[in-house]
Amino acid sequence: MLKAARVHNSNHLLTLDEIVALQQQALSLSFDAYPSRTTMADLDTKLIDQFFSRVDRRGRVALRDDLQTNLVKLKLIREGKVTIAAELLFGAPDCAIRIGRFKSEATIIDDNVVRSPLLLAVEEALTFIKKHINLSYHFDGSIERKERWQYPLEALRELLLNAVVHRDYKSASDIVVKIFDDRIVFTNPGKLFGKLRVEDLERDDYVSSLRNRLLAEAFYLTGDIERYGTGFVRIREFLSSYPEISLHFEEMGDFFKVELRPVAQVTPPITDLERRILMLLRNEPTSSSSDLAGVLSMRRDTVKEYLGRLKKRGLLVREGSPRMGRWLLTDAGRTALADAGNSSS
Q: Which of 10, 87, 73, 13 is nearest to 43 (CA)?
């Protein structure tokens, strides 16, 4: 018998997935708490030991010496049966992360399919992504050079964790990651769960609804997840030093999509003075505001004001300490400088 639910001012028939979700909420269960056809013999005990070692070091829960007792305590074994969460974490899950490096929507250069247990899958996927995104090096005044990836690795790891923890494992579809020259796209099966809406994710105080509570708990206990419901807050924090990159998310049918792409804006032409500042910093990135003031015959406070404007427009970023740091031109800064050079020639 089909059930109906009240939505706004009208009734609509519930889908099978909605009925299952309501049943889970009524029983205080999440999908990953249901029994799997997997047995203990099918699980990787070495991986389980590694998991509990990480949990023990983190100290967020008290463990016993007995592996079986610990699995029961974390509800990864329930009523004597291996749960779906345990199968996903330590077994051979029937799902994957598909990653491709694309030159265009129709042209793929390289691809990989990660079918490992979830405890290994995130790092394996991140390793492949790192092969296909840009890496630059610079010096901040110290002996060692510093790396700057095209995207902050912490944000990429958080997006992968978000995908594996919150995806709908009832779906036969896989998580898909597409890497393009100028953007990276994460798509995972399952719309936002519960009452969470896309616009809620733009707020720092949003409340997460957990489709897979046991998976979320497992990654929380290992320290991969700091606190529930803060994933997109952390991603925005990681992107704060990448003003040239914007974060976008949306629901598409039965999927949730997240994209990191260049900031979509029309950059006004830079002035001649801004062009001179960018050229000086491109050639001497460790220059201070006092150095620039001397070269430009300007007051130091005026130079600092211009530097602030260029940072706000996403043309410059500052890395390192105030005394020992350096200035870096972003892609938008280099483009603006090139456009200014072309217009003056």
A: 87
Q: How many CA atoms lie within 13 A of 281 on its CB side?
A: 30
Structure confidence at residue 335 as a pLDDT band (50, 70, 90): confident
Q: How far, rounded to the nearest angstrom, does the alpha carbon of residue 335 sit from its chain's CA centroid? A: 27
Q: Which two tokens stand for residue 127?
A: 């390793």
CATH assignment of the domain containing 239: 3.30.565.60
For 252, the token pair is 């598409």
- The answer to whether residues 125 and 241 belong to one domain is yes
pLDDT in tens, 10-38: 555 545 455 455 445 444 579 999 999 99
- Structural domain includes residue 267: no
- Is residue 333 situated within a structural domain? yes
Please state the pTM of the whole predicted model.
0.71
- Structure tokens belonging to residue 174: 């896989």
Residue whose tokens read 């603006």: 336
Instruction: Yes or no: say if 192 and 145 are a contact pair by the CB < 8 Å rule.
Output: no
User: What is the pLDDT at residue 110?
Assistant: 97
Q: Could you give the CA distance from residue 257 to residue 253 in angstroms, rounded to a whole number? A: 10
Residue 142 burial by Cβ neighbours in a 10 Å radius (0-12, 13-18, 19+): exposed
Express each pLDDT in 105-148 by its tens digit.
889 999 999 999 999 999 999 999 999 999 988 766 666 778 89
- CATH number for the domain spanning 325: value is 1.10.10.10
Q: Whose CA is closest to 235, among 163, 131, 128, 309?
A: 163
